[in-house]
Design a protein that fits this description.
The complex is a heterodimer of chains A (143) and B (327).
Chain A: E1 9-14, H1 18-27, E2 36-41, H2 49-57, E3 62-67, H3 78-95, E4 103-107, H4 113-130
Parallel strand pairs in A: 1-2, 1-3, 3-4
Chain B: H1 4-16, E1 20-28, E2 35-40, E3 49-50, H2 61-65, E4 81-86, H3 88-99, E5 108-112, H4 121-127, E6 136-140, E7 143-148, E8 151-156, H5 157-160, H6 163-166, E9 178-179, H7 193-199, H8 203-215, H9 222-226, H10 251-264, H11 274-278, H12 285-300
Parallel strand pairs in B: 1-4, 4-5, 5-9
Antiparallel strand pairs in B: 1-2, 1-3, 6-7, 7-8
The chains are: A alpha/beta (143), B alpha/beta (327).
């Protein structure tokens, strides 16, 4: 792995908490690594666990699902369902040999810009340690 | 013990009823140790039904495979029951279908056949190669007796049973309208030995193991089609827009296929082992299913296919589910 390897992190952030948290980090001029590609979803319950598999296939080195703290969901219970699904998908991915540090979930509320920064920094550090994800990345065919 | 006379008589009585469409059971196949599904709609067709250690098929699949054609105007839909012969594991598939409301309790008549373990046909064919004539088998204490052209052969159960039967904890149907003979004593216990063995390895070793298995996959989709729990009319793996999994057969798409298949059975797989049985390249699919089964039991204290009144695992939650990994 080259020294200037920059990981590609795909993050699914819920509209009501984590996305607003990331926005707060931005407006309050908190510096966090730019390796993160944010996809806004209305709720973590919207995240089909196959999104994670698809992200890995299409070039993610690490994925993050982030939403409201349990009990704070805008839709009352979306993040509880998401937690169950994510647990099972994480176990499955680990079982076939994906590094557990590549599959992450966090609770970040709209007022936790600082926490969002910490999460991203941890993810980038872990992703740099684990290196590029190549296990089942989709190979582009150059016709 | 297995009483074929009673089985056939019961089946005849059932198909004679006005409110039953047909009974789905097993009959002798055309060669070797093969047994095929049999749909008896008339009483005289029920004579072909059989039950033996060779009846490996999980017939619960046919409950959801039946094509539901639109009813012509002026005609009433056929609401007759479908009678189904089930082993212990098959009955759990019926329960799980009831949980998911894939069928109604009134629409099915379950005939329970307590089972002492069915054989793994691949193992038997290795043991007795070149048997072309239809062969039969029956249980005798802890043995399975094969009736071959050159006499009877007794084999201990451990030698020919697949892993799912050796570990079976539900040999007796958990749901039935009629039980054909006495219940057998359950023998299995679940310790997830093989799953733990693989879990103990490093991620790289695990990936090497699965990489080898997934690259040999032909994507014939047998595992999906035979599964009694895979009954979506519009399967996510067939869908073109969005295309979740490309059709090309390569490691990336195969892995994505197997992850999707296993994940969609999380908290639903009832461990009938059909996927592994039909796999032409012997991918240990039950390892993936059993891994998720283990997590579901340990983390969520949920066992699929036992209680028809339960809520599906992924459609329910507990506020205090474990979340030790969440940042």
């Amino acid at each position: 792995m080259s020294k200037d390897y920059e990981p590609n992190i795909v993050a699914f952030l819920c509209n009501w908490c984590s996305y607003a948290g990331a926005d707060l980090a931005g407006t309050s001029r908190v510096q966090y690594p730019p390796n993160i590609n944010i996809i806004r979803v209305m709720c973590t319950g919207r995240v089909n666990p196959l999104f994670l598999v698809n992200a890995f296939q299409q070039g993610a080195d690490s994925v993050l699902v982030s939403g409201c703290h349990p009990g704070d969901c805008h839709y009352m219970e979306g993040n509880f369902y998401a937690r169950r699904r994510f647990t099972l998908m994480k176990e499955l991915l680990e079982f076939i040999g994906v590094d557990p540090r590549r599959v992450n979930m966090s609770w970040v509320s709209a007022s936790e810009g600082g926490k969002f920064k910490d999460v991203v920094e941890k993810l980038v550090k872990d992703a740099k340690d684990t290196g590029p994800f190549e296990q089942f990345r989709r190979n582009k065919i150059n016709w | 013990m297995v009483d074929l006379e009673k089985l056939r008589q019961t089946a005849k009585d059932i198909v004679s009823r006005d409110d039953v469409k047909h009974i789905i059971g097993w009959k002798q196949g055309t060669y070797g140790f093969r047994v095929e599904p049999h749909f008896a709609a008339e009483p005289d067709e029920a004579d072909a039904l059989t039950f033996s250690p060779l009846c490996t098929n999980n017939l619960a699949t046919y409950l959801t495979l039946a094509e539901k054609l639109p009813v012509p105007r002026g005609e009433e839909p056929d609401t007759r029951k479908v009678a189904l012969m089930v082993k212990g594991c098959d009955s759990r598939a019926v329960v799980q279908l009831l949980v998911e409301q894939g069928l109604t309790r009134e629409g099915v008549y379950v005939v329970g056949c307590p089972c002492s373990g069915v054989v793994d046909v691949k193992k038997v064919e290795k043991m007795f190669p070149d048997i072309l004539e239809p062969a039969q088998a029956y249980w005798k204490n802890d043995q399975i007796v094969f009736q071959l052209p050159d006499g009877e052969k007794e084999v201990s159960r451990e030698e020919v049973l697949p892993q799912k039967c050796l570990l079976c904890r539900y040999p007796n149907p958990v749901i039935y309208d009629e039980l054909l003979w006495d219940e057998v004593k359950a023998w299995g216990s679940e310790d997830y030995e093989d799953v733990k063995e693989l879990e103990a390895k490093s991620p790289e070793e695990r990936w090497d193991f699965w990489k080898d298995k997934f690259s040999s996959c032909l994507r014939c989709y047998s595992c999906r089609n035979v599964c009694p729990m895979c009954y979506c009319e519009d399967c996510v793996l067939d869908r073109l827009n969005p295309t979740w999994t490309f059709r090309s057969v390569n490691l990336s798409e195969n892995t994505s296929y197997h992850l999707a298949r296993a994940f969609h059975l999380a908290g639903r797989c009832i461990e009938c082992g059909e996927c592994e049985r039909v796999c032409p390249v012997d991918i240990p699919l039950m390892k993936l299913n059993r891994k998720l089964y283990k997590e579901v039991v340990e983390r969520f204290d949920y066992e699929p296919g036992i209680d028809p009144e339960a809520t599906p695992l992924q459609a329910s939650y507990r506020p205090d589910d474990e979340e030790d990994f969440i940042l």
